[in-house]
Amino acid sequence: MIPNGHFHKDWQRYHTKIRAGRGFTLQELKAAGLNAPFARSVGVAVDYRRRNKSVESVQLNAQRLKEYRSKLILFPRHEKKKLRKGEATEEERNVATQLKNEVMPIRQSVAKSKARAITEDEKKFNAYIFLRKARADARLVGIRAKRAKDASENPEDVTKVAKEPKKSKK
User: Fold this and answer.
1) Does residue 11 surpass a pLDDT of 70?
2) If 0-12 CB within 10 Å is exposed, 13-18 middle and 19+ buried, where does residue 72 land?
3) Long-range contacts of 9-18 (CB under 8 A, 24+ apart)
4) How distant, in Å, are the alpha carbons of 85, 86, 91, 137 from that of 80?
5) Long-range contacts of 91-100 (CB under 8 A, 24+ apart)
6) What is the mean pLDDT of the chain?
7) More confident residue, 4 or 22
8) Which is nearest to 29 in space by CA: 4, 67, 70, 65?
9) Burial of 117 (0-12, 13-18, 19+ CB in 10 A)
């Protein structure tokens, strides 16, 4: 029922999924213009232990808090006293209804890509050969640099000259 901060799961399989946390961090509350005691008094969970790992999650959760605050109708603490800042008027209180389901549920954002025709470059591309070549290039970068350096220092030495790639016959 209480809105919680949400964040991405840590595991590789589920890192695209967003789940509800134990509460909002103090940084997120501050970005939304709330303090911890007031947030707890209006039903917002606060987690002092949680740390923010990215600016995007802080902004997303602060936006979520601002949206919750805008929909919130605060009833006055004392009926006979003057209304405080943020408290609802008589008309707003008459319109208010109690929610029975989850408050502001977390929705997964699904980015669906449209179907398209496969291009000629994609048809010719061989992923296995590309990856093998990338691994070989990464593994041999040091020895190739050494050979190039030796060949530039001793141009007359034939054994140090880099071989030209063979041309395939078609």
Assistant:
1) no
2) middle
3) 17/108, 18/106, 18/108, 18/109
4) 15, 16, 16, 79
5) 99/1
6) 82
7) 22
8) 65
9) exposed
Token pair of 53 as six digits: 């790992």
Q: What six digits make up the tokens of 168? A: 């395939």
pLDDT at 1: 41
Q: Cα separations (Å) of 30 from 35, 42, 49, 52, 122?
A: 6, 15, 15, 13, 49
User: What is the Cα–Cα distance from 88 to 71, expressed in whole angstroms?
Assistant: 11
Write the pLDDT tens digit of every residue in 105-155. Answer: 777 777 888 999 999 999 999 999 999 999 999 999 999 999 999 989 887
CA–CA distance, 154 with 150 (Å, rounded to integer): 6
This prediction has a pTM of 0.56
**Quick check: helix, strand or coil at residue 130?**
helix
Q: 4 exposed, middle or buried (CB, 10 Å; 0-12, 13-18, 19+)?
A: buried
Per-residue model confidence (pLDDT) at position 127: 95
Across the range 6-30, mean pLDDT stands at 78
